[in-house]
Amino acid sequence: MNQITQHDEWFLWGATLVTMDSQLRIISDGVITIQRGKITKIESNPNFIPPAHVFHLNAQGCLVMPGLINGHTHVGMSLLRGIANDLPLYDWLNQHIFPLERELGNKDFVSLGSQLASIEMIRGGITLFNDMYYFEEAAAEEVHKIGLRAICGQTHIEISGVEKSSDVIKKFDQFFEHLDSYPLVEGALAPHSIYGLSETLWRELVRYAASKSLILHTHLCETQEEVEKIRRERGLSPVEWFDSIGLFDQKAICAHAVELSSSDIKILGKKQVGVVYNPESNLKLGNRICPVVDLRLEGSRVAFGTDSTASNNNLNLLAEADVGTKLQVLKYGVGQLKAVDAVKMLTIEGAKALHMDALTGSLEMGKSADLIVLEINKPHCVPIFDWYSHLIYSSQQSDVRDTIVAGRILMRDRNLTTVDENSVLQQAKDMGKKVATMSAMLQSSKAN
């Protein structure tokens, strides 16, 4: 296990630094000084010699950049990876996912799924993720132990439509109290969707978020059916209705946003709403392409997201950015979303979308030392003419050598330092057998 803590001063040196700061500086022979988990100095020094008796990480011949930001996940679902395929969204949810969650969903299931997802994300260079699921206090506890940075959103679906708002809010109060001891975890409200809660409860939760300055994370305009249903019932699009109750005046994060009118896009842009683009999940479930170029032009901040492994089926954010950027070419034409824009969405713009840019998303003095080291001396990496093009179109998850969060090394030379990977993998395989058995039982009972 690595012994570096956020109270040590140490150095990372020798790499090309892709800073993603306001000037988009790229620094050769870079040296980063890290103290108490924060970046205290960045410089170019080709003659740097690490001080004796001080820990240092040699990154010569590598690329160092801010850690990747995954804007929308359901890490507790990682044990449902690939359980149901080749289905549209609502069939996938109602016939397979929801029934399995009702039978298997508990804190232990979410804890193990969160551990499995954390391992995958650390190996893929993700240092911050924005999550939404049930038993979210279990996810928060696991990522705290492992050392990732996360926004953990307790989800809610109003099954009866007549739940007392005071009872729901009391549960949220208890959830936030539980998270107080986890310094790298930000708690959030994560009501599932506009159709998953009554109008009354939505209004109450927006007021609650405003009173406590909370992040509010939800699904938005994921399908045409959703948009048509809300228009029939409320006479407004989901975006227009959310705007009317003040959701976008809060720290809102909206996942998917594929079915948007031009007026919807203008509202989201004017309010600078954080939008999360989940291209591979949307493709697999038969949904459309998020209008990223238009959203960014109007002022929205856009992050990439993987969604869950049940609908993706992986948490490979570099692959997500590759596919997602090319889909924008298909939708808008060549050059409308440039490689540098996509890297921003993976880092500093992603941090802005999640309301976390004061803390992370770029390599700058005073920010948290959330960064990754990528090897670039591989056949698919050579030669490199443009760092941003390389990151979006050439780099692979396996290139990530080291992953660091708040100055703590979570992976060094591809060896995880804060979690027993083999133990988690074996437990996940064992749980997979239970999931398969339960899935078969549920489908059999339905057929009969």
Low-confidence stretches: none
Counting helices, strands and paired strands, the structural category is alpha/beta
Percent helix: 25-40%
Report the C-alpha radius of gyration, rounded: 22 Å
Number of helices: 15
The general outline is globular
Largest sheet: 9 strands, mixed
Summed up:
By secondary structure, the protein is an alpha/beta fold. The chain is about 40% helix and about 25% strand.
What does this structure look like?
This protein has 448 residues and is α/β, with parallel strands linked by helices. It contains 15 helices and 17 strands. The strands form 2 sheets. Strands 1, 2, 3, 4, 5, 14, 15, 16 and 17 form a 9-stranded mixed sheet that branches. An 8-stranded parallel sheet has the order 6-7-8-9-10-11-12-13. Helix 2 (107-123) crosses helix 3 and helix 2 packs across helix 15 (421-447). The chain is globular and about 70 Å long. 49% of the residues are buried.
Throw out a few tags for this protein:
alpha/beta, 23% strand, eight-stranded parallel sheet, nine-stranded mixed sheet, single chain, 448 residues
List the helices and strands and how they pair.
Elements: E1 9-18, E2 26-35, E3 38-44, E4 56-58, E5 62-66, E6 68-73, H1 89-104, H2 107-123, E7 126-133, H3 136-146, E8 149-156, H4 165-178, E9 185-191, H5 199-212, E10 215-220, H6 224-234, H7 238-244, E11 251-256, H8 262-270, E12 274-277, H9 279-284, H10 292-298, E13 301-304, H11 317-332, H12 339-346, H13 348-353, E14 371-375, H14 387-394, E15 400-405, E16 408-412, E17 415-416, H15 421-447
Parallel strand pairs: 1-4, 1-5, 6-7, 7-8, 8-9, 9-10, 10-11, 11-12, 12-13
Antiparallel strand pairs: 1-2, 2-3, 5-14, 14-15, 15-16, 16-17
Helix pairs in contact: 1-15, 2-3, 2-15, 8-10, 11-12, 11-14, 12-14
